[in-house]
Fold this protein.
Amino acid sequence: MALIRVTPVPENEEDRLEALRAYGIVHTGPEAAFTDLASLASEICEAPIAAVSFVDESRQWFKAALGLYVLETPRDSSFCAHAIAHDGIFSVHDARQDPRFSTNSSVVGDPGIRFYAGAPLVTPAGFKVGTLCVLDTVPRALTGLQRRALRVLAAQVVTRLELRLSKRELARHEADIRARTDSRIRLQRQKQDLVSLVVHDLKNPIAVILPNTGFVLDHARLTEEEREALCDIERSARAMHGMVMNLLDISRSEAGTLSPAWATVRLKDLLEEVRRTARRRAEERGQKLVVSSSLANDCVRADADLLRRVLENLIDNSLKYAAKTKGTIRIEASSTPDGIVDLAVCDNGAGVPAAYRERIFERYAQLDPDTAKHARSSRGLGLTFCRLAVEAHGGTIWAEDRAPTGSAFRMRLPIGLLELRGATANGDPSNDIALRVVRSVAPGGTRDVTSTRPSAMPAQLGHSRGVP
Ligand SMILES: Nc1ncnc2c1ncn2[C@@H]1O[C@H](COP(=O)(O)OP(=O)(O)OP(=O)(O)O)[C@@H](O)[C@H]1O
Ligand SMILES: [Mg+2]
């Protein structure tokens, strides 16, 4: 009579195999956590053989095995293949008497198995991927306590599997983030290279156009038409120069290299220079430009070029966005006795709605890109540059409402009323540690004042800040 040796296959076999594959455990090396649990099962159940076994399509594979000298066995001769088709612990009292196992090579031959008890490894989704099993060479049964312990230890094996899976996912996630960060850094570098290239190629021709148009405008006899045309050229070149410089400094700030070239600066001179530069454009638009200063002492420690370009950007905005009002643009300057300098550029244009007053400092932010088309090169970069330049000075900048109408862009800068202690006026910024804010300085009493005006260039161009 033929013996029945049919190995049962769980109903959800495909999904079960998928769950097993997801753990990525089969064919991995020994791990103490699994070996320890098998060893504990062996001790508690007083069985000479114990194993953590996983059952795949065709075999059972041992992650941990005590008293067994094989790594895997065919599925159809496996006790565990029966255990995973069972709920709860599957046990065989005496394999010789069980038609399913009596001809099994491990029963008739080495190691001569008689007793088997296996607790299925049930995943959180309910799939039985393997067993924690104990085996003996004599017929026997487990006590109630041993059965309970085997179940608990099997649950521990699953917890270990889950932990391993989480770690793998975490590692994959980290690798993913690393790859994405690397590619972002690569892109950032490419962008910076591109900006440097563009800035380099554009800045130099503009640096030639601007002083020359200024020179011709000031000295040549021109017809009204010629003057108009030249003014157009100058306007466009200046707008492009502003955009190129803003772009350059924003990209420097991103690269962490926007650090002020500290020098002692006479603020009143700087304000006057800015006013003179913008006056013609203001007059063309029927706007007035006034400087109102209540500075106690106007010597500050700052980067004159950065500070001037902040003011120029703000005035440029007032000229652009308050153009219809034909009002007054005010540049206000004041200081507190403890060295805080407040600067503001105010206009009586339409103002900026409260909801947008923060957002306009973000890159490329424009309330109404159509309005900004006044200047073809308007890109929503001016205020971004202003904030970065002010922050590089340790200050803050914000937009306010101005009654009855208009906006005020205010800056608070800790740069004023300095007495130099052992630092040279154009010295290393680290010397700034040696700078001390003094409470009262007699008017004109500050020492070591240097002019910030470039000698041979028009004021609006400024001196080179080491453009690549
Ligand atoms: N004085 C102002 N009055 C009204 N709106 C303003 C004023 N200043 C700025 N804005 C608004 O804030 C937006 C951002 O200004 P920002 O200077 O950053 O960019 P832009 O002037 O559009 O372009 P860019 O400065 O690059 O030439 C402007 O597009 C405008 O909508
Ligand atoms: Mg602007």
Observations:
- The CA atoms of residues 78 and 148 lie 23 Å apart.
